[in-house]
Design goal:
Blueprint: E1 4-7, H1 11-24, E2 27-33, E3 47-52, H2 63-73, E4 77-79, H3 89-97, E5 101-102, H4 107-114, H5 116-124, E6 133-134, H6 142-152, E7 156-164, E8 167-172, H7 175-193, E9 198-202, E10 208-217, E11 222-234, E12 237-243, H8 250-266, E13 270-280, E14 283-290, H9 297-304, H10 308-316, E15 333-340, E16 352-353, E17 356-358, E18 365-369, E19 376-377, E20 384-392, H11 395-408, E21 410-412, H12 418-425, H13 428-431, H14 439-444
Helix pairs in contact: 1-10, 3-4, 11-12
Bound molecules: ligand MV4.
Ligand MV4 binds near residues 157, 166, 236 and 276.
Length: about 450
């Protein structure tokens, strides 16, 4: 196989992708911003191209600059990773139009899932349960709007259809504030996304966040790799993720796993994807589908033994998934702790030089990170430093293993959220697996 791929990302995911390419014998071109010239993956890349200044808008979000680098180095395909341009349908389209395969779904699939009403209406035709609500055009008559919301029942949540990931949402508790809130939410959506369309859902007050990993080959074959629970989060930033999601109703789960795979088969879904659900009182409610690799993919890899990033490359090169559903075995439990360079009190990013550090390691422990002693964490990008992942036969043993890993790991020179992780791992509610999406902010940190 003689292929060359451009990695259009930075940090740990760029290194993760580069490692996968090296195993597959794929040549790599890594692009970087001026401030990122010392990133670890650049040292192992076949070629490197500087694509602009530190500010993402001038480099990792700069489509012409990335396409120029692709042309200069004559790559076959472009790997977007997560964040930046990973779910930008125009970027995917322009890559393909310029003769570079975008590694991911077709641009039209990305566009469809990016419009949250369209995505919701679409998945519901595959027998996937969604949150009850209203996704039509709102009538002009104010009393009609009030009647619609009254029949959903307060509290409701207003969501911008061009939003997602927690942006452009507002909770409404009673009719008094309804019309005003609709107005503000639409106005904000127009300003932020250039699209004022909103939809209304019953507000699910205290759910868990559970997601399903899917993979399709673009030719009608698809499989799922089970579930993850990402409920331990703060302000839409996940902190700890696990696979599988435990204590969920198995009958409902099997239905949505089947429906999710059917959807992927039916639309010839190409690449990896994640269907996000809220889970409360034994019910799943679809909220969004992500069409990219996710930060937390390693927990799924650890319990399945399947390399999801290598699969992305294999699928893009037309080599298929090389795994059938009946060959997927789930082995024990995995947990991931995201180590961020951030202030433990106010959660503000804490960039700076890492003066000294030591990684974690050992049986059942995986460490995914681009940092090293002497590396300077720049202030321009997200603050993820490292992902520590442990796998063991049970959730309880995986937690114990993580505690030991966190005891070994240290970083000097900058502040991190390591202690927060250690405190969560000692927490009773977490250990009993009773936490919901509200737990960290509303109870643990109070
Ligand atoms: C909701 C919800 C409650 N009810 N929808 C936040 C991000 C976006 N993916 C959807 N989100 C939510 N949608 C209804 N009808 C609560 C959230 C939510 C949330 C969801 C998943 C993980 C963390 C969250 C934190 C706050 C709110």
């Amino acid at each position: 196989m003689s292929h060359k791929i451009l990695i259009a990302n930075r940090g740990e995911i760029a290194l993760r992708a580069l490692r996968a390419c090296r195993e597959l014998g794929i040549k790599t071109v890594s692009v970087y911003s001026e401030i990122d010239k010392d990133l670890k993956h650049l040292k192992f890349s076949d070629e490197t191209v500087c694509i602009g200044p530190a500010a993402p808008i001038n480099s990792y979000l700069n489509i012409p600059s990335i396409l120029s680098a692709a042309e200069l180095t004559e790559v076959d395909a472009i790997y977007p990773g997560y964040g930046f341009l990973a779910e930008n349908p125009d970027f995917a389209h322009q890559c393909n139009e310029s003769g570079f395969k975008f590694i991911g779904p077709e641009s039209e699939t990305i566009r469809k899932m990016g419009d949250k009403i369209t995505a919701k209406n679409f998945v519901s035709t595959f027998d996937i349960p969604t949150v009850p609500g209203y996704s039509g055009e709102l009538p002009n008559d104010e009393d009609e709007v009030k009647d619609i919301v009254q029949s959903i029942g307060y509290p409701v949540i207003l969501k911008a259809t061009a939003g997602g990931g927690g942006r452009g949402m507002r909770i409404v508790h009673s009719e008094e504030s309804l019309l005003n809130m609709i107005e503000i939410t639409m106005q904000e959506a127009a300003n932020s996304f250039g699209n004022d369309q909103i939809y209304i859902e019953k507000f699910i007050e205290n759910p868990r966040h559970i997601e399903i990993q899917v993979i399709g080959d673009g030719k009608g074959n698809a499989i799922h790799l089970g579930t993850r629970d990402c409920s331990m989060q703060r302000r839409h930033q996940k902190i700890i993720e696990e696979a599988p999601a435990s204590n969920v109703d198995q009958e409902s789960l099997h239905k949505i796993l089947n429906s999710s795979v059917n959807l992927c088969k039916e639309i010839n879904y190409e690449g990896v994807g994640t269907l996000e659900f809220l889970y409360e009182k034994n019910n799943f409610y679809f909220i969004e589908m992500n069409t990219r690799i996710q930060v937390e993919h390693p927990v799924t890899e650890m319990i399945t033994g399947f390399d999801i990033v290598k699969a992305q490359f294999r699928i893009a090169l037309g080599l298929g998934i090389n795994l059938d559903q009946d060959e997927v075995y789930f082995n024990g439990h995995a947990i991931e702790c995201r180590i961020n360079a951030e202030d433990p009190i106010n959660f503000q990013p804490c960039p700076g030089e890492i003066t000294k550090m030591h990684t974690a390691g050992g049986f059942g422990i995986r460490y995914d990170s681009h940092i090293y002693s002497g590396y300077e964490v720049p202030p321009f990008y997200d603050s993820l430093l490292a992902k520590i992942i442990t796998q063991a036969n049970t959730r309880k043993s995986a937690i114990k293993r993580m505690k030991s890993a966190l005891d070994e790991f240290f970083v000097e020179g900058i502040t991190t959220n390591q202690k927060l992780h250690q405190n969560i791992l000692d927490d009773e509610i977490f250990n009993e697996n009773k936490h919901t999406i509200n737990y960290l902010e509303n109870e643990f940190l109070k």
